[in-house]
Design a protein that fits this description.
- It is built from seven helices and nine strands.
- The protein is an alpha+beta fold.
- The strands form three sheets. Strands 1-2-3-4 form a four-stranded antiparallel sheet, with no helix packed on it. A three-stranded antiparallel sheet has the order 8-7-9. It has a two-stranded antiparallel ribbon with strand order 5-6.
- The chain folds into two domains: about 10-145, no CATH class; about 155-215, Arc Repressor Mutant, subunit A (Orthogonal Bundle).
- The protein is globular, with a radius of gyration of 19 Å.
- Helix content is about 25%, strand content about 20%.
Length: about 220
C-alpha cells in the first residue's frame, strides 16, 4: 500500500486543501471564500468550488436562453446534474457535491453537453449514469442508459442495513422522499412487513421500482 502523503495547504486551481476528511475526501477553501468537499483524484489545476461556473453562467445568461433547448427534457437533466453537484440546498447534494462529485468545465454550458448526449445515444426515457460512481460528470465517465441499469450501479442491500436511512428517487435521480430507516419507508408504503415490501426488493436489486420510485441508501455512492 502506498504511503499516505499529507497534502494540507497544497493548491489546485482556486482550491486550497484545508483538512483531510478520510475516504480520500478533502475539505477545500476556494479563493472566493466558499468551502467545498472534493475527492483527491478530482482535483485539477483549474479546480474551483463552482463559483466560476456561476460567474460564466451569469455572463452568458442571454446565450443560455437562446440555444433552443431550455424547455427540453435534456436541458432539465443538465440543470438537475449541476444542482445536485453545486447547490448545498439541493436534497441530493450530500450524495454528489457533498462527496466531491463535480461537473466538468466542458459541460458548464448546455450546448456541449447536448452535443455529447445526442452523439452518445441520448433519447427521452434514458438517464445519465456515471460508470465510476466515485467519479465526476464528464464525457469519459458518463453514459446514457436505462433507469434499471443505473439503479444496479450502486452498493447492494445487506442484512444489517434495516436501520439505515433510505431515499426515494425519481427518473432524473432527484431525491423526492427520505426516511430514517427501511422500516419507516415500509410504514409509509402501507405494507405491514418489510419482507413483502417492494422497497426491499429494489434494495436487493430484484426489481427496479416500487411505489413509483427507485430506492437507495442515503449513504450509497450514487
Amino acid at each position: 500500500m502506498p504511503k499516505w502523503i499529507d497534502r494540507t495547504g497544497q493548491k489546485y486551481g482556486m482550491l486550497t486543501l484545508v483538512e483531510y476528511l478520510g475516504e480520500r475526501k478533502w475539505r477545500c477553501k476556494c479563493d472566493c471564500g466558499n468551502e467545498c468537499v472534493r475527492l483527491g483524484r478530482n482535483l485539477y489545476d483549474n479546480s474551483h468550488c463552482g463559483c466560476q461556473l456561476q460567474k460564466r453562467n451569469k455572463e452568458a445568461g442571454i446565450k443560455r436562453t437562446t440555444h433552443g433547448g431550455s424547455r427540453t427534457k435534456l436541458y432539465k437533466r443538465w440543470t438537475a446534474m449541476h444542482q445536485r453537484c453545486e447547490n448545498p440546498k439541493n436534497d441530493a447534494y450530500h450524495n454528489y457535491g457533498g462527496r466531491g462529485i463535480s461537473v466538468c468545465d466542458e459541460w458548464s454550458e448546455f450546448a456541449p453537453f447536448r452535443d455529447w448526449s445526442l452523439a452518445n445515444g441520448y433519447k427521452d426515457g434514458l438517464t445519465i449514469d456515471r460508470i465510476d460512481v466515485n467519479g465526476n460528470y464528464e464525457p469519459s465517465n458518463c453514459r446514457w442508459t436505462t433507469y434499471s441499469v443505473q439503479l444496479a450501479n450502486r452498493r447492494p442491500y445487506r442484512r444489517n442495513d434495516m436501520r439505515k436511512p433510505v431515499e426515494a428517487i425519481d427518473h432524473d435521480g432527484n431525491v423526492v422522499k427520505r426516511f430514517d430507516s427501511i422500516g419507516d419507508a415500509v410504514a409509509w408504503s402501507g405494507c405491514k412487513s418489510s419482507k413483502g415490501s417492494g422497497i426491499t426488493e429494489v434494495l436487493h436489486g430484484r426489481q427496479s421500482m416500487a411505489y413509483g420510485y427507485g430506492w437507495r441508501f442515503v449513504d450509497a455512492e450514487a
